[in-house]
Amino acid sequence: MTTADTTPPLRIGLLGTGPWARNTQAPALAAHPGVELSGVWGRRAEAADALATAHGTRAYTGEEGIDALLQASDAVAFALPPDVQAPLAVRAAEAGCHLLMDKPVATTVAGARAVAEAAEKASVASVVFCTLRFAPETSAWITEQAALDGWFTARAQWLGSLYAAGSDSEYADSPWRRAKGGLWDVGPHALSVLIPVLGDVEHLTAAAGPADTTHLILRHTSGASSTVTLGLSAPPGAAGVEIELRGERGTASIPGWAGAETAFRGAVDALAEAVRTGVPHPCDARFGLHLTELLAAAEEQAQAAV
Question: What is the pTM (predicted TM-score) of this model?
Answer without folding.
Answer: 0.95
